[in-house]
Amino acid sequence: MSDPDKPVSVASLQAFIHRALTSQGVPEADASKVSSLMVEADIFGHDTHGVFRLRQYLARLRDGGCNAQPNIVVAHETVATALIDGDNGLGHLAMNQACELAIEKARSAGIGWVGVRRGNHAGPLALYVRPQANAGMIGMAAAVGSANHVPPFGGTDLLLGTNPVAISAPNGSDDPFVLDMASTVAAMGKIKTLAQRGEAMPEGWMVGRDGEPLTDPNRKSEGFLLPIGGPKGFGLSVAIGLLAGVANGAAFGSNVVDFTADTSSETNTGQFVMALDPAAFGMGEDFAQTAAQAFDEMRASPPLPGHAPVRLPGDGKHEVAEQRRRNGLLLGPALHQDLLALAELHGFDATLEPGI
């Protein structure tokens, strides 16, 4: 058994997740794919959307809210577009297929845009845009949030989620540009992580119904997440909802099901993945070279007094990821104990081997 204050090996954590998923009837191949993607999220630092989410996934599988053995199909297709029906399976499966199909279409048509309906929470969107950048393409993905935590700007009814978006681009290095952000000041996953660790939220993340700052993460249900940039973040969230939800025949607005509070209902989560080949515009490898030059100029900009040097989204991720692959992942005592509790609750082997 590993020490909660020391790293857990990547292989051991992936095997743990695999056992957890198969305990709920998920087929071996699907469990392997999902466990790999979940651990990859933690490897690249998306610790609010990796193994931390296992409890929610298992609850939905146990209670029938998520289909353990989905038949994922392409429901509609053109040369450059497609719509995948996820059959209410684990969200990683449909989104991984969408990412692969978008890249395939971009290779032949210059662009591939693949929507997903009847999906589920699929971890961080960065998982589904990094492959495009590694293939020399521009990537984009977005999703309707898995619960409504945000009112329309100036309103009080919870009708919007964190509605994230991710964009990637090659730059000729091991660290492609990868932007993955919620349309809110903070993602709900970060707030749940703070609650698990017993830490307070910074002011500006949430407000109560009285409009005053809310800093206790355990009181998150009493208030609202705030959109980035006020009405601009609200508008961005609506736009993502139209593209990822309405356009795919997926949930948006009051139709969104809170996938944590309601573990027995289908969420019909909507997402999309896009791949764009710069060669379709006559750029080819010149795109990465031009982007790298612009990025180098930005990094060379003298920082303001008291500020760290300029960094681009994605900088330093590769080196940190490789270190974690070698040395293991530090889960923290609270998450470590939660995983052991899940193993006992669902009746599977709780072994977690230490990293280096």
TrEMBL record:
InterPro entries in the record: Mal/L-sulf/L-lact_DH-like_ah, Mal/L-sulf/L-lact_DH-like_NADP, Mal/L-sulfo/L-lacto_DH-like_sf, Malate/L-lactate_DH-like
Keyword Oxidoreductase: yes
Superkingdom in the source lineage: Bacteria
Keywords, alphabetical: Oxidoreductase
EC class name: oxidoreductase
Keyword Oxidoreductase: yes
A molecular function (GO) term: oxidoreductase activity
UniProt-listed Pfam families: Ldh_2 (PF02615)
E.C. designation(s): 1.1.1.-
Similarity field: Belongs to the LDH2/MDH2 oxidoreductase family.
PANTHER family per record: MALATE DEHYDROGENASE (PTHR11091:SF0), OXIDOREDUCTASE-RELATED (PTHR11091)
Name listed for the protein in its UniProt record: Putative oxidoreductase YjmC
